[in-house]
Amino acid sequence: MTAPGSMEVAAVLAKEAGIPKQNVFLLKGELPGYITIQDLIRIGKSYGESGQVPAFKLPPGGKSKDVYGFLSFSSGTTG
């Protein structure tokens, strides 16, 4: 996943790594030939309710502090 301004680098590196173009996604914006996050959301919704994973809900008596989280960030590198 990348942004339009980084696609040139990301596409070259993905190709070198053997990652097919259809598996390189845009987090924002649009570029011809690339799938966007909005496209992925539309594809997911097209499966209907039976094709969706239910939204996470805390179990009865559960506490937010007991749920693990994941924060993905970059140190400023691109591609």
Give me a quick take on this structure.
The protein has one domain (4-66). Helices cover 25% and strands 5% of the residues. It has 2 helices and 2 strands.
Account of the 3D structure:
- The protein has one domain (about 5-65).
- It is about 25% helix and about 5% strand.
- It has two helices and two strands, in the order αββα.
- It has helices at about 5-15, 35-45; strands at about 25, 35.
- The protein has a two-stranded parallel ribbon with strand order 1-2.
What key attributes describe this structure?
two-stranded parallel sheet; mainly alpha; extended; 5% strand
Q: How much of the residues is beta strand, in percent?
A: 5-15%
**Largest sheet, strands/sense/barrel:** 2 strands, parallel
Label the overall shape: extended
**What is the topology, as strand order, of the major beta sheet?**
1-2
Backbone structural class: mainly alpha
Assign a percent range to the helix content: 25-40%
Count of DSSP helices?
2
Q: Can you write the helix and strand succession as a string?
A: HEEH
Low-confidence stretches: none
The rounded Rg comes to 17 Å
Number of β-strand runs: 2
Number of domains: 1
Distance between the termini: 9 Å
Topology record:
Layout lengths: L6 H10 L8 E2 L8 E2 H10 L33
Parallel strand pairs: 1-2
